Amino acid sequence: MIVAQRKPFAEIAAAVAGHRRVLVAGCGTCVAVCLTGGEKEAGILAAQLDIAAQLKEREQAFGVACVERQCDREFLDELAAQVAEHDAVLSLACGAGIQFLAERYPDTPVLAGVNTTFIGINDEVGVWGERCRSCRDCVLTVTGGVCPIALCPKGMLNGPCGGAEDGKCETDRERDCAWTLIYQRLENTGRLANLEPIITARNHQASLPGRQVHPAYERRYSAHE
Amino acid sequence: MSKFSQALAAKDFVLTVELDPPRGPELGPLTELAKELAGKVDAVVISDNREAHARLSPLMAGQALVQHAGAEVVMTLTCRDRNRLALTSDLLAAAAAGVGNLMLVSGDFVSLGDQPGAKPVYDLDSVQLLQLAAELGQGRDLAGGLEGPAIFFLGASLAPEARPLGPQLIKLKKKLAAGAGFLITKPLRGLEGLKEFASVAGELPVKLIAGLEVAAGAEPAEALALAKEIKAAGLAAGVHLAWPGEPQRLPELVGQL
Amino acid sequence: MGEKYEPTIVALICTYCTYTAADMAGSMRLQYPPNVRVVKLLCTGKVDVLYLLEIFKAGADAVMVSGCEIGDCHFLEGNLRAKERVAHAKTLLEEAGLGGERLEMFHIGASDAPKWAQAVQGMTRRALELGPNPLARRRPRAAAA
Fold first, then answer.
1. What pTM does this model have?
2. Less Cβ around it within 10 Å: N or C end of chain A?
């Protein structure tokens, strides 16, 4: 899932300061699961902002809404009436949801309430770990299901750097060296030969904005383009 | 064939030193130091933003030492600060500047430096950078033909003390396959790790130079003792000395070997 | 204006322990300030951060959450969760500018009537020291009606 972190309160408070009626819009999918931007978090943040506004004697009102997903047009449509009643929307969705909300309601200022941090997994209650950089050229088959792009700070593709010590990373001696994990996983499963070929320089076109069409829909969209 | 590659082939024991370019634009003192070292060492290795602290470009420093100090230069180039285009153009420039040897490494991560917020590049890793330099020697970059070859003697780094050794050995094999012609180890803490590495790795097809560093504020006695032992026991084809705190004392240290 | 400040303290308390202690305090004729308004919960594990913020928005001068002693929760760990939520709510109140000291967590066993009386006394003293909840000025209290 996509993991996000609430922005510092002072930053959010400053961002909403110029708006009288603010809709705090949660998203019920990824950011709800990581306890950052779901319905409950939207309610809590709205209450906090309300308290802060009252203490500053600012005439502000904070509404709360939450949709299933801010990255789907049909769910965003549900917000139309509430958006119309507010001067700004503070979105607690990931960066994709915030942008789609802003695109759907282009006449209303849309503000970001969270910092999107990574694509990750739920390690244990309240703890998430990064696993994927969406690089568009997955090497996990070769690297034993451990990603050297996401888990090695240098994204090394051909083995560990010289900074690895006792299976830990040079950037933090608590952090596992991704290449040690890869080696151990492949050794355990008898696949060390995977590491013999040199992986050559990668295609970094992932820096271009992505767009993909499902093969079953290609005909539909190519007809209009 | 660079002078350094000839020395490595011909001599029983080589000596190299590491010099940092200045953290300012004045190259005079570095050039003077290199002049003092000329004849005493087989090569001067110029570091590249060592420990992720910005310094004058190793390319410019290398050129100055080649032209004004008559030094045999090994230029370090890291993957940390340049993408493949910048690496290619700096390598071509190094060839034009008369730098014949390279030390191609991944580079300490930016968070270990004084500007931890810098964007780390790592477009290529150290194996791929060796491949790029080897291609340049054939007159090609990663996209295709160039107007002429840029020929270098390629060096790679090795961490014989890192454990587990398995992943390091795989990396070493790839570096050799990619064209590494010599190896310099990371600064050693002792000799046990190196001996254990040698017993596992067996005989290497290229010369291995043992890296030693005099820590800031420390006296050189320990490094000197290790260097003498390495030389006497033939544990490596040479030693590479770094003294980041007091590089001006390197000639004196080298004189004792 | 000018009238004496009598703090309103909302206490969210567990039926299995603190509520019994409070009841016993009455039977024992223990004296404690009349400022506390008790809300009985099946377990303090039901306390939500949002409840706490909303109670302050509604004008409470202080909020007490009181559950079982550590290790004695009828539902094993409801009081532990409440403790963490109260700590988190304190930081949220700090961020919002109201301050976290108006909120406190207590652990009071069913037989500990004197501890309940002391807790209410202490919290009332704290509410007096802190002064009225500034949010209350803007929303006339229901109690005044």
1. 0.88
2. C
